[in-house]
Amino acid sequence: MKTTKLKIIAVLVIMAIGYSFTSLGKITIKGSDTMVILSQQWAEIYMKKNPGTVIQVTGGGSGVGLAALINGSTDIANSSRPIKPAELEKIKAKFGKNAIQIPCAKDGLSVFLNKGNKVSELTIAQIGGIFSGKITNWKQVGGDDAKIQLYGRESSSGTFEFFKEHVVQTDFAATCQTLPGTAAIINAVKKDKYSIGYGGAAYAEGVKDCKVKKDANSKGYLPTEVNIKNKKYPIARYLYMYLTSKPTGETKKFIDWILSSEGQKIIAGVGYFPVK
């Protein structure tokens, strides 16, 4: 009799534990390393306001996040680039519908320079020439007679793809050292006077942002909120969340909150800019 009672109690405990987990609203977010800091801030604040919700945020790159969305292992894919046609086709083939695209923030994609580098302003063409390997010495752009050291993102990164398409416009130089994340690029540029890197504006700590000019006759601009809002900074982009269907339940509540004035206020504190 005693054994039977213990079995009943054990079953009830297991059922109670199972209920407590399934009753929680769990949201998984994966993708863009550029967006990790921002998404973690959103998640932490939202979970404090909604204790019954669990939000898991991981990086890996935009391509990794979109691949996870396609294979069904994440609810939301963060991407710092627009989704590719091939990725859209895979989602449509698997789920029978188009992906849902939600712009959630803006970013001024920064070009990072060491604080000791006397160069502080470059044109889009010069930056493209540097990262493609056509320009290899700082004296070619008004700096010291020193070899340029390049640091960039891995090919799965949306930042890599955006920068390649809009700035480099060809293949990156073979001498460009690939690093896993913008924070790693910042650390490398901080240590190397004659280096250059690129990444999300939110990471620019301990280095200087390069003023970017559309062409030789234009004024150079820094990636500030005003310059991005007025479309003066020439390397600006949207940051996106992608889903396989219209959000419902806790996921919809979370996204609605992100797009609300409260959620958008958090963006500036991280170093990015509101979507409107």
How would you sum up this structure, described in words?
There is one protein chain. With 276 residues, the chain is an alpha/beta fold. It folds into 2 domains: 2-107 and 238-270, 3-Layer(aba) Sandwich (D-Maltodextrin-Binding Protein, domain 2), CATH 3.40.190.10; 110-234, D-Maltodextrin-Binding Protein, domain 2 (3-Layer(aba) Sandwich). It has 10 helices and 12 strands. It has a 5-stranded mixed sheet with strand order 2-1-3-12-4. The model is unreliable at 1-23 (pLDDT under 50).
Mean pLDDT: 90
Order of helices and strands: HEHEHEHEEEHEHEHEEEHEHH
Strands ordered across the widest β-sheet: 2-1-3-12-4
Count the DSSP helices.
Answer: 10
The total domain count is 2
Low-confidence stretches: 1-23
The tally of beta strands, per DSSP, is: 12
Structural class: alpha/beta
Name the overall outline: globular
What proportion of the residues is helical, as a percent range?
40-55%
Q: The CATH topology of the largest domain is what?
A: D-Maltodextrin-Binding Protein, domain 2
Strand content: 15-25%
> What is the CATH architecture assignment of the largest domain?
3-Layer(aba) Sandwich
Distance between the termini: 67 Å
Q: At the first level of CATH, what is the class of the largest domain?
A: Alpha Beta
Whole-number radius of gyration? Answer: 22 Å
The name of the CATH superfamily of the largest domain reads Periplasmic binding protein-like II
What does the largest sheet look like? 5 strands, mixed
